[in-house]
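Recap from last week: sequence in, structure out.
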Amino acid sequence: MNVNGRIWLETSKGTFAGEGRIALLEKIKLHGSINKAAKEMKMSYRQAWEQIESMNKQYNKPLVHKASGGVGGGGSVLTLEGEKVIKLYKEIKLKFNEFLKAQSKIL
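Predicted structure tokens:
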């Protein structure tokens, strides 16, 4: 038997970040584009933008800066705060997975 679980971060306003939102941030960092990140994750641009807006509103600083389109097109940049959130989530998830593994050994 194994112990299993999922982890996510919450604020008083609800879910802040979990696997999907962290993956979205990573893909924005990789592509420099919300649209490209959304397509890769098979979600609509609107859904991706709503998730980003939710995270930006719940955090003390923006995680993603969006540049408006124009002749050269727009783009999006993951901020240092966004990178910190990804790092923090991954550290917590690693410890959580270690906990799950240790609990599974008890069974």
